[in-house]
Every structure is written in structure tokens, then in C-alpha cells.
Amino acid sequence: MNKTILDYSLKIRVPITVFVAALTFTLTYFLSRPERDGIGYAPPQPIPFSHKLHAGEMAIDCQYCHTGVTESRHALIPATSVCMNCHTVARKNKEAIVRLTEYHGEGKPLEWKRIHRVPDFAYFNHSVHVNKGIECAGCHGEVKDMDVIRQVSSFTMGSCLNCHREVHQRFPDLKGVNTGPEHCFACHR
Amino acid sequence: MSRTEETRYWRSLRDLADHPEVAQLKSNEFLAGVTDESDVADLSPVSRRTFLALLSASAAFAAASCTNYRDKGEVVPYNKQPEEITIGKANYYASTCTGCSANCGILIKTREGRPVKVDGNPDHPVNAGKLCVRGQASVLDLYDPQRLRTPQFKGSGGGFAEGSWEEADRTIMSQLAKTAAEGKEIALVTHTVTSPTFRKVLDAFMARYPSSRTYSYELFSDRFRSNAWIRSYGSNGAPVIRWEAARTLLLLEADVLATEGDVLEQIRSITKNRDMNDPRHFSRIWVAEAGLSLTGMNADHRIRLKPGAQFEFVMGLIHEVAQRRKLSAISPETSVVEAIGQYPLAQVVARHRLPAHLVEGLVNGLVSHRGESIVFAGSTLPEEVHTAVILLNEVLGNTGLYDQRVSRVQYSSEATMEDWVLLVQKMREGKIGAIVHVDANPAYHLPQELRYAEAAQRVPAIVTLTQRENESSVISTIVLPINHAFESWGDFKTRTGQFSLQQPVIEPLYATRQKEAILLHWASGSTTQPDASSYHRYLKKRWEEEVYPSIKSPVAFSRFWHAALHDGLLLHSEKPIARGQFIINADWLQPLWRETDQFTVLVRPSQNVGDGRYAENGWLQEIPHPVSKVVWDNYAAVAPQTAKSLGVENNDIIDIRAGERRLQIPVFVQPGTAEDAVVIEHGYGRRTAGPVGTDVGFDVGSLMPVEIRSTPYIFSAAVTKGSGSYELVSTQEHHALDDAFVKDLHLKRKIIREGSVAQYLNTPDFIQKGRHEPESITKILEYDGVKWAMAIDLNKCIGCTACVASCVAENNIPVVGKEQVELGREMQWIRIDRYYSGTPEDPVVSNQPMLCQHCDHAPCENVCPVAATNHSPDGLNQMAYNRCVGTRYCSNNCPYKVRRFNFLDFRNDFADGIYAEEPMSALYNPEVTVRSRGVMEKCTFCIQRIMEARQVAAEEGREIRGSDVVTACQQACPADAIVFGDMNDPQSKVSHYRAHNLGYHVLEEINVRPNVTYMAKLRNRQTENPA
Q1: Which of B376, B407, B438 lies at the terminal end of a domain, its last residue?
Q2: Residue B806 backbone dihedrals phi, psi, to 5 degrees
């Protein structure tokens, strides 16, 4: 059997091309995945609020500001008036606090950049998770160590389901909790 | 005798006649033409090649220009946190519905400050937590993009220009002052006044402008009943009736379950005596009417009677009852006895060819249940009928059913037709200096023959206070926009001992004021502009000075006031107006009107659009008529035999002439209509209503008489076949349950099962005898934990469609429009199927709400190629919209025909996208996805409410209970026919219903194991139960 160009192509070139293409795709897919899922997203905020300072060093409870987390499906970004509970007195000469006071005084909307978001057709509910004993850090990471708030976990349907299935492995201390629901109506309606 | 074994049910007359087209329709899931809209000429001129080029170019540009694909937008918190709002949780506020003069108590659900849903206030004594279709739909009017936003001034060219409130107030107040100085009349046109504080405002206005006069009216009021009552008993207004105490009810042309009086209270009390668990106390409902009404559909016996024969019929009954029971109880004068003596029942029966055995049974029933029966005449009937009915109730000793603890209260006397004629005459003569239309639309409501709009040209100043443009605003010089009811303050009193309060739940969306505040400002004569809370202060002050002292409350006023506002009502003890001594005079028992032509026209109010004020409401236009299932139109209902003699069929135009008055209107052949009667609903044919309501249906105003012998709603007319036809669209033959190819077998399908009370008492399990127990070849999945199920009691369901309206509001269901309904694309998740059996002349009607049955073995699930619909562990048939690719296989495979497909993005498609405009997006329930084109949808058993209950259970650290969830349809049902809960809980009501002797499933033999149980209807017919 003579070695022909065709033979060469079929045996060497095509497999190599296919292999390289598949490898590139697979590598790109997995390497870019956190980027695509938004992990590490930490845009500059209109007020350089530091969770590390407030939640970490001063150990203010998450729920002092995120009041909706046990009763509503939204955790809630605190109203500007909540900041002013302290900042009418505390550090009121700092540049950022001066701007904050302006927002509050003039009734201007304070537009925080959104970090965590699930699509509109998914109805995530904070209060159910928190009331079952899931820690905030379980999804949001160690916020109290972050100077600039950033996304640490993926919020895709796959991530939700993984956690629902492996709840006991992920939260070994959690007692009396079933695995999370996996049916459509649990999140979509 | 079981009706189900021998009765043949038919959905329409064509169906009864085995029309081949109907058979075809029933075998197809989608109507012909539902998918053909692709004409090559209509296709885009862009070729595939160009399209691909554009696609790749735009993708390249997008990739190149996409600087921050990770951007997720902003979150904007409140600046100052409102105390009572938690984002994501609903707030409820008690208020009062102002859709009609019943003034039911409502609870308005708001999300983040936006009203999204209205339900009844459970504490309110009249509606007890329920709300009718119109009340449910009133939230749509708040966000209607057609609302006026600023004052409008008529220019010299006839068009309107925007202006300011200062300018409007200045102009109007100087005009009013000038008119008053000249001594010319100022006409204030209002609807019936039910608010004591608004009455005070009107009085203050009239004190400032002494030449003013109020004209209060309702298109359909109960003035004839009131007048007869005042004449007979000398006291104020008709009584409140204790319907729940009535064992035998005779309703004469009275649609008490749909349009007449305090409908929700009547539905509740009448259906209370249709309890399947208490069959010995079933009431027997008799109806005598011309057109088949919602009440007529639910009667045990229905007698077809032309409106002109009602008087003789009642007199005949009095005659017969008096013979059996002696008149000594009321000792009438001989002249009265003589008047009654002219109407021997046998003669009346023979003259009007009434079914003698039924009338005999009726008399027996009335006499044997004397003291526990009630005869009630509809408000369209003339005064003499009401007088005769009062006499009949006296003779039967039924006066105990008039509620002694409470009486009706009135704050305005009604303008009569003579008043209107005089007003129009004065307008023509230039004696009227100004007219103020206070949220009233006389240019549409008054008979066209009166030529109100024409006479208005001679009036120098016409001011209309309205939410949106109407027939009266276009003839005005100044149009002032007013608040929606949800933006207004108010108090209402329709009965002694009951105040109902109205509070705003949202700031006015536009530069509007409430009508009371506008009149109050003019009455004050002040030159400074009033602030937004002027009427609030006025109301509160009146309560502090007048109401609070009279109540003798032990708490301070501010607490008293806030408690009343919180509850939405104030109940206190107040002495009712006592009924006077009964008197009767033979002169009152003379018929003032007799038929002068072969045909009699009866004009009735519409359940959905009311007197026309809801014509601009797309939800109400699209909810099918409870009897005919026609949408987006009114029509002339005639009997099949009358249609035959006129030579017309459905959709043919007929020409109705009464003297000079004339109307051309399409025919709808309605089984059960009295011969030679033409029944038309008012409220349609609005000439100026907005893009939704203008020219929908036909205006009966052109036919209404000015010269009235006894009642304006009933008159003789000549009817001939007209030329042409008009397409009426009904949902009647859509979504037919598939039974055509087994026509002879369809009696065995037992979609409707029913029997009689007597049969049930003899054999309680008679329904169960015919039931199949299908063998399953697959393993039946066991559900542990909660499993959701519904039961619908067909003994209670009257088919009023309140559930449909509630579902539409709760689940963001779009309006599709008449053309789309015609193609079979209506979107409502729950429909009321209506089946006829018997003859076309005297049909027997069965109603059945049909919604997704959430079958355990759901046929839709097996065929979905992408598993977008499947089963949840709590027994729900779930639908994931974001997964659906729109193959419509599921709908094709659904035996109940309850799936709905978004053929278009209906919000953009309907009426040039009016419902896609702002602020409509604020109306949507944020807990339910707004579906777009190409997606299948259906009833979810209100999954958002189930999930909310789960959230509350998790918060309280317990498992969810079946009783935690109330679905939207269940909440709305005025008869409490719908039960929802956990069928795995043996104590739950729904599992009792499922195990009940009368429970059955529709199409259970196909073994889809549906989770909606229907409770078979029992009829209390006299031939079967002669007790």
C-alpha cells in the first residue's frame, strides 16, 4: 500500500488538528469559566465602602445593614439613612463620608454597582436559606476580609444545584436540614 | 333518575345540530388559521445572505465594542428607608371599592409601594373578603396609559391644549361666580352619592353657588324598587334581604348573582343553602326572565317570560296564593281584591303559554315555605311589578326576611327623566351657565334622543372631572384629570351602622387631584392653590367633629381614626330606619305599560363593563360573558325560534326600530331567551373611550326612550332583518373537550356528572357507581410530604368569572384582543366551561371551571422534547418558561385543553402596544415571570403563593401546611366553591372533598390521575323532590 497524501492527511494531520482544536476549546472553556461566571468581579463603587473595616474589624453584624435577609427574598442594600445612623458623627470629615452626606441630604439616589445577580426568571430567596442556617459566607465568601466587595462563587444554575445536592458535605455543621429541592418550580415560576 | 346517564350536553346550538364544522373544531387543538400568518408578500425583504452578513457584522461589532460584559447594572437603595416597606414583601391596605354604588371593602396588595392586586376585605360585612370581576380589574385602570395627566383646555379650533391647575381654577371659579351672580343655573352631574363627606362637599359648593343644582344618577339604579317600597311602607329605600333564610326563591328578571344590588353578599348567602353536606336544606331557586342570565343559569327551574308579562304573572301568583291562604292577614280594601281578581293564574298561564305544572309547583313551594321564601323583582322592571311583589311577599308572610337590624342609607335623590328633559331644555334656552360633570358621563349614559351633546353647545362653561377622555369630556371647555380610587381619600356609607373608609395607597401618578378636593377648593373661593392633602384634612375633621362624638368611642380620636383606617371600616350600633305600616292601593296595581309591537326589547347592565365605565379595561373586555362566552362585544340575544322567524342566524345584523329610535346590531342566538324578546346589554359602543374601548360593541343609547311610561329598560320595537353581518367572537367552541369522533360515546365520558337532591338522599353514592378504577400498568409514584390538590364544588360555582379576573391579575396574563381570540389564542389560565343540555328553548346549564388538572400521569410531560414541563415532588405539573422552545406538543396532548401558547408578544401586539407603554410595567406581579413570545404557559396552582408559604414556614421553623396556601382563584370565589390544600393530610378539607360521595374527576378513565376533583352538582327540581 502506497503512502499517499491522503493517507498522511487522514492519519496525521486531521487527528492533530482535531486534537489541537479540542484542546484549545477545552482549555479556554475551563480557564475562562470563572471569568464568564463573574468570579472576581469587583468594580469600583461610588462610595469606597469597606466590608473589611465594617464587618471585619468593627464586627458589625451583616444583618445590621442587610435587614431583609431573614424575612424577604432580597437581602437588601441598606438605605443611605442607615449609613447616617453612625456617620452623622463618625468620620464625618472624610471625603467619602462628605459625599455620602450629600447623597443623603439632597435625596440623591446612590447607585451601587451590582455584584451578585441571578437572572430574572430565577427566584432565589435569601430568607429561606438564612433561616435554614446557611451562612452568608457560604455563597458570598469571606466578605469581612474584602476591602472592595467582589464575587467569589459562581451563581449559575449548576452551582445552585451542586449545593442543593451536596448540602451536607458543604455544611457539615448544619443539622436537621434536607437536601435542597431540585425541581423547576423551586426557582422558576 | 341520573341526568348524566341520559342527558346529552351541547355547547352551542350548532353543536346540538351536529354541525360538521363543530365536529372538525373539536377534533383539532388549534383553530384553522391559528398558524397561518406567513404570506410571502409579508415576509421581510432581507434575503438570507444579507441577514447572515448583518448578523456576523453585528456580532463582530458587539464583540469589539463590548467593553464591560460583566457589568450587572446598579442597585439603588432607598435614601430614607420607609418604615413599613421591606423590599420583596407585600403590604396590604384596607380601602373601599368605588366601581359601583355597592362600595365593597377591599384589601389592596402593594409591592414596593405599587398596587398590584385587589381582593375583598374579609372584615367587611357586605362582601366578606370577596370581590367581583370589576373590582378585581380596577387595578388595571390605575396604570392605564390613557389616563389624563394635566388639565386640558379647549382651544378655538376644537382641540385641547394642556394647561395648569392655577389657570383652570382661576377660569372656572370666575365663571362660576359670574354664573351665580347672573342667577343662571350651575348643573352638577354626579353618580349616586354614597359618601357622607362628599355630600357635605356638594352642600358646601351649593351654599357658595346658590344657583347650582345636583343631578345624581345611575344608568341602572334600583329606583323603581325603592319607589314602590317607599309608597308601600312609607320608609326610606328598599330593604336588605336575608337571603340565607330563604328556602324558596322566586327571582323575576333579577340577576342577583351578577349585576343586581350587593352581588357578593347575595352570592354568598344564596349559595350557603346549596351545601352538599346539608342536602335537606337545599334551597329551590325559581327564575322567571326573558334573557338567560347568570342567575337563570343557576336556577333549579326557569320559566321563560317576556318582560311585559311579569306584572300579570305576579298578580296571577297573588291571586292563586290568596285563594289558598286568604287575604285576611293584610285585610286589603275591596278595590285591591278586585284588582287581584282580574288575574286568575290559570288565565295568565294560558295567555302566556307558561308550563302549567311548573307554575303549580312554584305556587306549592311558595305556600309551603311561606315565611321562608322570597320573591324579588329586578330593577329593570317597572314600579307596578315591584308593588305587586311587595304585596305577594306580604301575603306569603315573608316580611321576616327583610333584615330588621340594618337599613339602606341614601345621600342623593336620583334625577328622573323629567329632570333631564328640563335640564336639556334649559341648556337650549341658554339658562344654564355652567355644567360640572363630576366623574360622570351623561353624554354617553343619557338616551341619544335627548341630544344632550347638541344642547351642551349652548352652555358657556362645561367642566368635566374625569380620569380619561370620554363622551362628556370632548364636549367640555375644560377637562380636569382626577385621581384613581387608589390615590384618593374617602368615606362611604350604604347601610346603617357601617362606614367604609378609603385611603390612598400610592401618590398620584400624575398632576391629578381628587374630585372632592377640586369641588372643595371652588367652594372655598380661595385664590391660593390647595395642597395635596386638603381633602384628607377635611375628611378627618368631619370625622372628628361629627362621626367620632356620635360613636362615643372610649379611645382618643387619633387612635380611633387610625384603627378605622387600618380596618377600612367602622362598625357601630345604629338604629335602622323602621319599616312603616304596609299599605296598598288598587291604583298602584295597574300596569302603566303594555306591549304595542310584536317584539319587546330588554336592556340589561353588563356584568363586565358595568354601565360602560369599564369599557377601557382590556381585562374585562376579554373575560368571556358568563352565559354566551362572547368577548369584546354586546349583541341582541334572541331565541332560536325567533331567529328562525326573522330569518337570521348568528352574526346577522338586525334592525330594531322604536318610533324614531333605531339600532342595528348583530344577533346572537341564545338558547333560553323568551320568544319575541330581544335582550341587549348596555355599556358598549362607547364613542370616546380610548384605544381599547372605543367602538367596542353597539351603543343601546340610540334606542333608549326619553318618554317613559313606566321603565326605560323595557319597550316595544319593530325588528327586521338588516343587511350585512358582524363577526361576534365567542370562546364557546374553542378548547372543546375532544369527543366528536366518538359522538355516540360522549355521554359515557361523564365530563359533567350531576343528579338531584332526592337521588342523593336515596343513594348517596350514585355518582360513584359509574366511576372507573383504571388499572395502571406502570408503577404509581407515591408522594410523601405535601401533595397539592384542588376541589371545585359545582353546587356552589355559579360561573361568575371572578376567579378568571383574579388569576389574570395575579399571574400577569396579557390581553390579546378580539382578533386573536377569534383565532383561538386567548390566554386566560382558567376558563368556565358552560354546557347546555335539554332543549334549545329551555336549556339546562352546567358550569365547570377548567384549569390545569396537574395530572399525576400528565400526558403533556411525556411529549415535551426538552423536558420544560415535568412533575414536582409535591405533585405539581411544572412549567419552566426559560426551558420551553415552543413546540406546542404539550398543548396538543393535553386532554383538558388548558395550556396557552404565546403566539405573539401580546403586550406589543395588542392595540398598537398600549399595554407595553409605561406605567403598565408597574402593574406586574414581581413574583411571576412575564412570559414572552414562543413560550407555553398554564395554571401553576399559584406556585408563587406556595413558595411564599414555604418561606414563612422556614422562617417559623416548621414544615409547610396545606392550609397555608390560598390560590388566587380560591381567594376570589364569592361562593367559596374552590378548595385547595394538601391531599396527603387526612384532616384537610381537600382530602375530605376528594373522598366525598359526590367527588369525581373529569376524564378519569384515561388514567391521567388528575388532581382537581369536581363535586357533582345536585339540582333541587320539584318533579323529583316533591317535598
Answers
A1: B407
A2: -65, -40
Are A20 and A46 within one domain? no
Whether residues B947 and A185 touch (CB distance < 8 A) is answered with yes
Which pTM was predicted? 0.90
Give residue-wise pLDDT tens across range B132-189. Answer: 999 999 999 999 999 999 999 998 888 899 999 999 999 999 999 999 999 899 999 9
Looking at chain B, which residue has its C-alpha nearest residue A78? B77
CB contact under 8 A, B882 and A79: no
Cα angle for residues B425, B428, B432 (degrees, 5° grid)? 85
- Tell me which residue range forms the domain holding A17: 5-31
pLDDT, tens only, B15-36: 666 677 766 766 777 766 666 6
Say yes or no: A162 and A132 in one domain.
Answer: yes
Q: How close, in Å, is residue A7 to chain B by CA atoms?
A: 36
CA B769 from centre of chain? 38
CB contact under 8 A, A112 and B882: no
Question: What percentage of chain B carries pLDDT values higher than 70?
Answer: 94
How many Å lie between the alpha carbon of A173 and the closest alpha carbon of chain B?
18
Number of domains making up chain A: 3
Distance from CA of B88 to the nearest CA of A (A): 5
Q: How far apart are CA B273 and CA B286, in angstroms?
A: 14
Encode pLDDT of A102-135 as tens digits: 999 998 989 999 999 999 899 999 999 999 889 9
Look over chain B and give the mean of its residue pLDDT values, rounded to a whole number: 89
Please tell me the distance in Å from B872's CA to the nearest CA on chain A: 6
Decide which of B746 and B299 is more confident: B299
* Residues B780, B701 share a domain: no
> Nearest Cα to B108, choosing from B87, B139, B132?
B139
Asked if the Cβ–Cβ distance from A115 to B927 is below 8 Å, we say: no
Q: Do A184 and B878 touch (CB under 8 A)?
A: yes
B950 neighbourhood in chain A, CB within 8 Å: 128
Q: Which of A67, A108, A128 sits opposite B954 (nearest CB)?
A: A128
pLDDT at B107 > cutoff 80:
yes
Interhelix angle A95-106/A80-87, nearest 10 degrees: 130
Q: In this predicted structure, which of A126-130, B8-12, B318-322, B551-555 has the lowest mean pLDDT?
A: B8-12
| Cβ(B638)–Cβ(B840) below 8 Å | no
B940 and A185 within 8 Å at the Cβ level: the answer is yes
| Angle, CA A156 vertex, CA A62 and CA A39 arms, to 5° | 65
Rg (CA), chain B: 29
Q: Do B87 and A72 touch (CB under 8 A)?
A: yes
Same domain for B739 and B705? no
Rounded Cα–Cα distance for residues B659 and B270 (Å): 41
Out of B73, B80, B88, whose CB is closest to A114? B73
CATH assignment at residue B697: 2.40.40.20
Return the residue matching grid coordinates 378636593: B517
- Of A184-188, B446-450, B513-517, B747-751, which range is least confident? B747-751
Q: A105 with A47, same domain?
A: no
Mean pLDDT value of segment B605-631: 93
Owning domain of residue B800 = 3-32+733-743+755-1019
Of all residues in chain B, the percent with pLDDT exceeding 90 is 70
Contact B810, B117 (CB under 8 A): yes
Confidence of residue B1027 (pLDDT cuts 50, 70, 90): very low
Please check whether residue B412 lies inside any domain of the structure: no
Note whether B929 contacts A181, CB cutoff 8 Å. no
The per-residue pLDDT for B3 is 47
* CATH code for the domain of B950: 3.30.70.20
Q: Would you give the distance in Å from CA B317 to the centre of its chain?
A: 32
Set of cell numbers at residue B511? 398632576
